[in-house]
Amino acid sequence: MEFTLSTFATLQCKLRERANPIYAVSRCALPISSGIDIAVIERFKANVRDAAFVERLLTNREKAYVFAKRRPHRHLAGRFAAKEAVMKALGTGWDKGVGWKDIEVVNDSNGRPCAALRSKAASFAAGKEIFLSIAYTKEAACAFAVISTVIVPTLRRGNACGAAARSL
Hints:
Layout: H1 5-19, E1 24-40, H2 44-47, H3 51-57, H4 60-67, H5 72-90, E2 103-107, E3 113-117, H6 119-124, E4 128-136, E5 140-156, H7 160-166
Antiparallel strand pairs: 1-5, 2-3, 4-5
């Protein structure tokens, strides 16, 4: 069996239908790009005390999160890696005017990291979703970002995503 993006979307919808067979949310996300970054935590021990670096990198909400932690340098490295991963996934880098504070890494109500975009970063991601993951080892913080496009954003009975995915 050839595994394509449309196959992925169809499988994703089938799993959602099994979870709730009466009403399936017909909202499938097709991954279109990804980015990854690794930051060495030790290098951020000095940076956490560098007010200019922290001010350039983090929003007020991010600063509150990072400095509330027992090892703020670890979480600073994680936020740095996450922002880099999102920039890579967006395909912007530094040459397209996306700044550090245009990407804010916040946690949702379940503690899962999310990317809140503003300014030029938001315009690059218009109509798309960003999925973000941050993982830590003793030495490094790694972040992975996936940008996906949403197809068939409706609520209906049955599997509308399968038909939409097959038509791609």
